[in-house]
Amino acid sequence: MSDTYFIYGMHAVQAALEKEPDNITRIWLEQSRRDQRGSAIMGLAKQNGIHVERVKRDELDRRVPDATHQGVVAESKAKAALDEAGLKQLLDNLDETPFLLVLDGVTDPHNLGACLRTADAAGVHAVIVPRDKACGLTPVVRKVASGAAETVPFVQVTNLARTLKSLKERNIWLMGTDLETEQDIYQADLTGPLALVMGAEGKGMRRLTREHCDFLVKLPMQGSVQSLNVSVSTGICLYEAVRQRQKAE
User: Residue 187 above 50 pLDDT?
Assistant: First the structure.
């Protein structure tokens, strides 16, 4: 893993400057970007003593080829994901009812980025993924997440089944999603300590992951479509939990 990576896109770069400016080492801004958003990035960079270099568009294209950079690229120190020990410390320090998202093998960076963005909006305390055969915090993920990759704790674990077992030992309920189950999500109680477990694109949850879940739910499908994109399903499930939890307060 490289010690640095590129963040690109106006929103993603601005979010990184607002939330973790100490990690930003350098910014390249397209010469023609002299609008309000470009000025905002210049101002934030100046406040934090970060050098901004005005460059031609082809310089940005060279740094992040095939990316929609919107005229700005930032170099950032790589933020390491948490491991099992980091997750334990995070949970030990929580003074709220745990609310977690577990993604069992999501490989598409756009889906992971969208899940992180929704997790941030819903107040999720951490997103947990397996270290192998799953997407990590790539530049595309960070771009799609629109700053959420810098705010939501991201945990990569070596053995997901073992981590799920440790969550259950903390009395955190594991709610899995499965198209074949009878109970739909609107019949389930999502108000207590909860980890929402989502399966991978197409394949769903692995057998061991499913077996560790305390209960399974499905989204009611009224039309001809049989399933939803994992990031869409995640958003629906998280916000049903948010609705119930707010009502219970």
Answer: yes
